Fold these 3 entries.
Entry 1:
Amino acid sequence: MNTQDLKIFEAVAIHNSFTKAAEATFTVQSNVTARVRSLEEEFGSPLFERNTRKVSLTPAGEILMHYSRQISHLINEAKKEIKSADGLTGSLKIGCIETTMALKVPGILNQFGEIYPQIELEFKSAMRGDLINDVLNYKLDAAFIPAPLNVPGLKYEVVTEERLVILAPGTTSSVGALLEQKEMIKIIVFDQGCVFRARLESWLSANGIVQYKAIVVNSLEGIINFVEAGLGISVLPLEIITTYYSGRNIKTLTMNKSLSSMNTILISRNNAKPSKALQEFINLFKTHTLQP
């Protein structure tokens, strides 16, 4: 077995096809079949279920896929560290939810780029669940997500605490008036899986409101515009409002502490120590971004 065998194995698993795996790895199908058969003989177990339409991983194949990704990652990390023996080079992929993208990313990009110009720093904004999966599957080196976390294979550290507030149209006088309005409450939210949406729905439920209409938007600016236009309410971090939207015709209202307090954590895989680049990124983030 060699690393090329594992690359071909992963390609078959990703594409669910020997033919497509051959195209993706620039070889012929007979070679793909032979490499997979060799792996199956070495591990003493079938790695794929084969039928006329597609192939899929067996339980043994799932196990090998898990370790194959680890092996590929470790080899790539070794190459990076060897190349950067005299200075940090390479790439670093970090994930975050959209509010972290808006608040923290511009500054850290500038700071990190000035100190480590040879490292390509890439950010991805996505929902919490997608970010967790991407870190587990080696698509991201680390990700900022809302706490809590209890996922095997991941470790985390708390990096900041945020205060969430209800965002309401500027004409709203109080929380009481908001809850007593006769019309059905409308909420302006991201899609399912958004922590802010979950907090807002929990707040409504705690106040006895179980019927409401959700208007889904896909950007922070969209949420602000819709709330300002009087179309509904939302929940966002107070820092977002005070930093970027303090002049808008919107009002912030408080929630109870259990719902308004949100820890942001940085997650990474726990099967190996962070790369030099990732450790430097973490140190820089904590030193320059989290100072009061």
Entry 2:
Amino acid sequence: MPVVVMISNPAAPRLTDEIAEDLRARWDGAPLRRLAPGVAAEFVVPARPADLDQAAAALRAEGVDLALVPEGGRRKRLLLADMDSTMIGQECIDELADLAGVGPQVAAVTARAMNGELEFEGALRERVALLAGHPAGLVDRVLAERITYTPGGRELVATMRAAGARAVLVSGGFTAFTAAVTAHLGFDAHHANRLDVDGERMAGTVAEPILGRQAKLDALHRISAEMGIETGAVVAVGDGANDLAMLGAAGLGVALHAKPVVAAQAQVRIDHGDLTALLYLQGFARSEFVTG
């Protein structure tokens, strides 16, 4: 049977018992299970509610995310995560471009690519070309001065790994950044693009083949096969159009604070919760979280 999961932002809890119990009663749900007071709760329902989408939209306006997930196989064995605007709060190439003095030009292309208006690989080549000749040391400056981590990332990775899962960062960004994010958050591995450097300057090119939408999907299938698991045992999270194929193929695909085109197509949409939402969706209670 399906499970209804309600999640709000842990930094600004909005899930009252009244909201949760009213919905449970309306849908003839099983007794409420509180995953975290004021933040997350769930209940089993006999079937998919006919007014699920309308209820989700109404709750979203109140600061509560609503998802319907299968009761079986909830706890996944592989986490695949996008990096930019997902595990961290920035688009690294936009931050590089800003320090290089070409921020507006690059940011405009990034926005269109993430909305699915441009083919990712070509858009990346176009943006990287604008960085040609600028100091390679700008990467270290971005890491030191501009990167912030999305709340809940450490708990997500540490809790899943403690439960026996593998966690892999799969990014259309650059290995210079994914290596640092992987070390900070405790991922098992990372895959990304390599920014070419000529001496102490950025060359304005990226190593081919570019890791984009198809490569993320391929990574999901390859890593699943290496682990001997079905794709249904994968949870994937991202925010941009180049994540859609990966999100669609995973057993649980989560659009986290995503671009509209992604939020509209993903299996699960999280607008208010942080990265711990992925744990609640898998049935973890707050008391089970590992902080890393």
Entry 3:
Amino acid sequence: MGHDRRALLAGGAAALIAGGLGFRAWDRGIWSGGEGVAYAPWKDWQGHAGDGGNRPVRAAILAANPHDTQPWLFQVQESGITLFANRARNLGSFDPFRREMHLGLGAAIENLVLAARALGFSADINPLDGRLTLSPDNSPVDVARITLKSSPPVRGPLFDVIPYRHTNRGAYRPDQLVGAGTLQRLAALAGC
């Protein structure tokens, strides 16, 4: 009788876990096929002419970021955009020095600048004084001010791929060498 009871409890626990994981996957839209409210920013990421300074922000929020924490806040004004580090979205002990947060904020600025140029704005980035260091609270810290001015649109190749860029945690392929031509093109894109 004791063996049957343990088997029943183990089977029930396994069913409960499987059900919980299934619900979580459904709740997070894993089987949605890229449809639904969570995917809306990718469908209308270029915005509309009347959106003003919000248009580049639409591209900025699609930036690769640590574990989808989206550690940023944007304040849009007529003359520009202020980027804040939302330290409440930090990964804690997984990112104690906030390195991953810094990378995500940099990716957001890059997307914002690419979009601003393509949408007819020059973007002047002014990093704000201070450091994003460990601190006793999680209040937002201003990181950069991006001043926008009207200019002729300049649409580069990286603008068009903004909605397709993402974090890749896959293994590098050491068996696949990068050709000299590809390296030269990458260096040219980076301005090296």
